[in-house]
Write a structure and sequence with these properties.
7 helices, Virus Head Decoration Protein, Chain: A, mainly beta, 24 strands, seven-stranded mixed beta sheet, 445 residues, five-stranded mixed barrel
Length: 445
Amino acid sequence: MAEQGRTTLKSYFETGDKPTQVQFEDLIDSVPNTSDSGVSNTEFGYLNGVTSAIQTQINGKQDELTGLTASVTELNYSDGVTSAIQTQIDGKLANVVDDTTPQLGGNLDLNSNDITGTGNIDITGSVTVSGEFLGDLDGAVFVRVYNNTASTINKGDAVYLTGGNNGDKPHIDLADSSDANKMPALGIVKENINPSSEGQVAVSGKINFSSHGFTAGANLYINGLGALQETAPTGEGNLIQKIGKVVSPNIILVQGAFRSNATPNLNNGKIFLGNGSNQAVSTTLDTSVVPENTNLYYTDSRVQAVSINNVVEDTSPQLGGNLDVNGNDITGNPAIDGRRAIIVEADTSRTLSLEDAGDFIIATNVGDPTTIIIPIDDNVEFTTGTEIDFIQKTEQQLTIEADAGVTLNGVDGGSTSITAQWGGATIKKIDANEWIIVGKINDVA
C-alpha cells in the first residue's frame, strides 16, 4: 500500500485489466482524505483557484507591507469580514428616510443639531429637558410626589403637601376643606398611589377617567378628606377652593391648584374685620353701644356699633333696639306712627329698668298696694330727659318711691302716691339722680 502517481494508477484500469486488492489500496492512498489529514472541507476549499505551489507564492511575497497606499490600520478594518464588503455596503440604507420603522440601539446624540419636521413624536416614557421647552402643551402638567401615609391615595383624590419629601418628591396626603392645615390642595391624583410609593398629581390640565360621576359643565370644589363636590362648602369652618371643571363624563380639567379663597365663608350675623395682622377675621355685630363720633368700634373680637353715613338714604328705617340719642336732639316736625309701650304691672313691687324708659305702666293689683322704685344711677343709668307714665287702675294704692341718693321733687329718697283709682302721674329725669313727678299725686315726703 503506497501512494502512486497518476500514470501508474491509470495502468491498473486499462481495458481488460482486473485491478487487484493492492492496486485498489494504492488508489485510495493516493487520494487526499480530509478525515485522515485533519484539514476541514472549508480549509480544503481555500485551495480553490490556486494556480501554483502555495509556498512558492508565499516565498515570493514581501515580509512587510511597503509601498502600499493602504495602511496596516486600514487593512485591519477588514478583520472579521465574513463576506464581500461591497455586497454588504450595497445592502445598507442610503438614507434614514428609507427606513419606515427606525429604532435606536442606544442614546441619540444630536451633536448640537436639531430634529426638525412637521410630524408627531410619540413617547410613552418620560421626557427630561434641562433647557427651555418652547411650544404649546396639550394635556396635563403633573408633579411627581410621594405617598408617605399608610393608606392608598386613589385616582381623583385631592391632595395637599404635608411638608416632607423623599429626595425631590414632596409628601402628600388627602386635602380637607374643614381643616386649614390640610389646605389648599396641590391638585388631583392621576393614578392610585400605594403607601410608600411615588405617583403623579395633576396641577393643571386634563385627567381622563373611565367615568368620574360628576355632571358635565359643573365646577368642582374641595370637600372633606380628598373628596370633590359640585357646590362650594358652607359654614365658617370650611375653606373654599375651586379645583377644576368637568369637561365631559370622562374628563376633568384641573384649574385651581394651590389657591383657596382668601376670604372664607361667613356665618349669619357676622362681619369681617381686619385684625392686628392685617387679616380678615369673623366677628359679631353688636349695636347695643354706640360710641360718640365712631362708625365702627372694635374690641375683644367684636364690633360694638355701626352708624349709617346718611339716614336719609334709608327710605324706611327701622330700629332693632332702643335708640340712644347720646345727648343729642331729634329735630324736625315728623309724624310719628305707632304707640308707646303699655306695661301691665300686677306685682306689688317693681324697680324700674332701662327697658321701662318711655313706657306707660298700669298698676292692676287688686289685693295689695303696688310700689314703683326709682333706682340710683349707679344701678340703672337712665338718660337725662327720660319720662315714664303711671296709672292706678284699681283701688289699691300706687306708690312711687325714690332710692336713697335719688331726689324726687327735691326730696332725697322722696315718696308719693296716686290720690285715687284711675289717677295717674309722670316722672321725668332732669339730672343725674334727680327726678320730678307731676300728676294726681299726694305731697312728696
